[in-house]
Prior knowledge:
The chain has helices at 9-12, 16-29, 50-177, 187-263, 268-278, 300-324, 442-449; strands at residues 2-4, 32-38, 43-48, 336-339, 342-344, 347-349, 352-355, 361-363, 368-376, 380-386, 391-396, 398-401, 408-409, 414-418, 428-435, 438-440. By secondary structure, the protein is α+β, with helices and mostly antiparallel strands. The strands form four sheets. Strands 4, 7, 9, 10, 11, 13, 15 and 16 form an eight-stranded antiparallel sheet that branches. Strands 1-2-3 form a three-stranded antiparallel sheet. Strands 8-14-12 form a three-stranded antiparallel sheet, with no helix packed on it. The chain is rod-shaped, with a radius of gyration of 53 Å.
Amino acid sequence: MARGGGQGTGARRLPGHIAQKIHARLERHFPEKRLFLRTESETRFIRLTPARQLLAWSGAGALVAWSIVATAFLLIDTIGSGNLRDQAQREQLLYEARLNELSAERDARAAEARNAQERFNVALRQVSAMQLELLKSEDRLREMEQGIEAVQATLRRTMKERDEARAEAARLMAELRGENTGEPLPAASAEDTAATVDFLMSALADTAAQRDAIAEEARKASELVAELEMEQKLLYEKNDRIFSQLEDAVSLSLEPLDKMFRAAGLPTEQILDTVRRGYSGQGGPLMPLTFSTRGEEPDPDSIRANAILQRLDLLNLYRIAAEKVPLVLPLKSPYRLTSPYGPRWGKLHEGLDMAAPYGTPIYAPADGVVVFAGWSNGYGRLTKIRHEFGIETRYAHQAKIRVKVGQRVSRGERIGDMGSSGRSTGSHVHYEIRVNGKSTNPMKFIKAGRNVF
């Protein structure tokens, strides 16, 4: 290298003394240099003017400054991403804790429903026992009434015979005294008459004793009837308390079920009619109870009992319908809701995306029949289940399908494994509910079933 004192190319472009001043200042910091390039045949050199050196140093400084700024932005982004990941993990932990609470609450509601069903069974057994006791009481009361009537008839007959015996005794005594003829009777006739009178007096005494015994039996029968009437009154009061408890329990059990179906937007009356027609042999109307054996009109207790049985039948219909409607989640393991139902990227997202580890079991949320099980563009491995009342559920992006077309599945039966097949960014299940061919928000069904299942 060598230094030179000539003016640079950039300086020659500026006019007059301004260019000279700029060139002089540049010469102080960036004196002109020459870079020699020597080969075997010739020697060449490159002039590095102050302007070129300034331009090179400026470029190098800009590059260093850009590197520093880019590094700083990269560090800031890395720190921010770490905070976002931590926040996402915290939110996931909170969501899983809430999901566990909801699962525990669902299990508690299911236990309460089972306990209520057991109480219903116990109450029904109590009602049956009460009816048997009432029937036995009516039989005993009817037998006692018949016995009292027989005793009264015997007493009336005995009293009539007593009066006749008294009249006959009086007549005979009159004959003994000769009141009828005014003449004394022969000795033999008098002896016969005296014997007859003694016989009649003895018979009269026996009749009086029988009358007193029958009267005592009638008094005891009256006391027994009074006791039976009191016992029957107590049984009626106990029966009334049992009926009241049954009515309250049935009302408390029916109300959440009715709210559940209405919250899901389902036609409750139509669903119940459909279940009633399909289960007329098992879940249809029950036969009314009859408490009297005399062919009389039903009493108020019979009417109340029939009303309770009708509401219990309605509860049974609700229970059957709940088994056929997808009111629970298709997952039993913790999951993360990555995409809700609604608009997404300018289109309608027609289901719920629930993410969990690869291979997480997927379960049928209700009874139904598999109508599709295979590969579908976009959905990947897809399963469709047709339920009652025009409802269809879909499960997309599965890793493995565990059911076949035409197979009948029950609520809680495993139908597949979670995966990432089709258009998917990670392991999750796309869950859809369609009613009469139109998509609906699955959360309506899930929220409706939370208070019951």
